[in-house]
Amino acid sequence: MKIFLDSSDISEIKLINKSGLIDGITTNPSLLAKQEGNFKKILKTIATEVKGPISAEVTATHSNKMIEEAKILQKIAKNIVIKIPLTLDGLIACKYLTSKKFKVNVTLCFSPSQALLAAKAGATFISPFIGRLDDVGENGVQLIQDIKTIYKNYNLKTEILAASIRSLDHVRQVMQIGADVITIPPKIFGDLYRHELTDKGLESFLSDWKKSGKQIS
Ligand code: G3P
Q1: What predicted TM-score, i.e. pTM, was given to this entire model?
Q2: pLDDT for 194-207, tens place per residue?
Q3: Residue-number span of the structural domain to which 186 is assigned
Q4: CA-based Rg of the chain, rounded to a whole angstrom?
Q5: Residue among 33, 96, 28, 88 nearest 62 (CA)
Q6: Fewer beta carbons within 10 angstroms: which end of the chain, N or C?
Q7: How close is the Cα of 76 to the center of ligand 1, in Å?
Q8: Catalytic hit among 2, 65, 78, 83
Q9: Is 140 left (phi over 0), alpha (psi -120 to 50) or beta?
Q10: Pocket mutation for ligand 1, best pick of 129, 136, 165, 184 (most atoms within 8 Å of C-beta)
């Protein structure tokens, strides 16, 4: 499973990327809007720091304009993936762009039929937003399972990128289903490796070792 960070914050990205475990980045207009400075420079810095796919989203709503914006975003770096919302115009733009070898992440997916259409439009990634479905009383994780089944039924190659992740429990469920990619907010990255019993266990191992006076040398 690939792990992407859902962030536009360069210092946060650099810090976590030191682990060598980050396979890509997803940004969106809300995340980029929070950052000071030129958004192209921010995306360029992110795309240089992390070698994998970096999703950058169009903000136009008409397909022709989305395609124009995609061309501008693609010039920022080779590893930019164009993020396009799941509207009819978005699907039209996706179909065109993927026919021209652009990589496209179709975002704001909330239903199995939307995911099917995105795959038919050649999407490289589909981004179902599971936390936002939970917010409205639906089962976000179930959507990942539904899409997994549908893509398997029809041998569709679009990668399932689980987004809008809010908890470690989301991560566990999405891993069990077998999503291809998960994009996590930086604050959840720490939860992936921290465990109280790991800390306690380490503390007692080290204290016993120190008391023994032995050394690895
Ligand atoms: O990747 C999508 C993500 O940025 C949305 O997350 O928590 O705002 O629903 P959230």
Answers
A1: 0.96
A2: 999 999 999 999 99
A3: 2-207
A4: 20
A5: 88
A6: C
A7: 23
A8: 83
A9: alpha
A10: 129
